[in-house]
Amino acid sequence: MKHSVVSLTINGTERQMLVAPGTTLVEVLRENQGLAGTRRGCDQGACGTCTVLVDGKAMMSCLLPVETIEGARVETIEGLTPMQGLHPIQEAFLEGFATQCGFCTSGMIMATAGLLARNPNPSRDDAVRAISGNICRCTGYEAIIDAVLDAAKRMQAAQRSEAA
Amino acid sequence: MLQAIATPGSLAEAHAALSRLPDARLLAGGTALVPVLNYGTDDFTSLVSLRHVGLTGVNVKDGVVTIGAATTLAELEDERALAFLRAALDAIASPTIRNMATVGGNLFVKQPYGDFAACLIALGASAMVSNGTTARVEAIETVVSSGLKQGEIVTHVSFPLPEAGSFKFAKAGRKALNAAAIVTVAAVVETAAGRVTRVSIGLGGVAKSAVRAASVEKALSGNSFDRVSVERAAKEATRDIDPSDDAYASAWYRARVAPVHIRRALIGE
Amino acid sequence: MEKIDTSFFTKEREAELSVVGESVQRADARGHVTGQTQFYEDVTFPNTLHLKMVRSTRHHALIKDINTDAAMNVPGVVRVLTHKDVPNNWYTILKLIGVGPDDEPVLPEDRVLFMGEQICAVLAETPQAALEGARRVVVDYEDLPPIFDVEEAMTSTPFKQHGTNYFVYEGHNCRRIRFGDVDKGFAAADHIIEHRYESAPIEHAPTETTGCTAKPEGNGRVTVYSNTQALYFTLDNMALILGVPFNKLRLVGGTVGGGFGGKVDVIVEPIAALGAMLTNRPVKYAYSRAEEMQVSSPRASERLYIKDGVMNDGRIVARKITLYVDAGAYCRHSTYGTTKAAAHMPGPYSIPNVHVDAYCVYTNRTPSSAMRGFGVTIGDFALESQMDQVARYLNMDPMELRLINAYRDGDMKAHRKKVEGAALVEVIQAAAHQTGTTLAPRFAKMSSFEREA
Question: Between residues 124 and 143 of chain A, which touch chain C (CB distance below 8 Å)?
Answer without folding.
Answer: 135-138
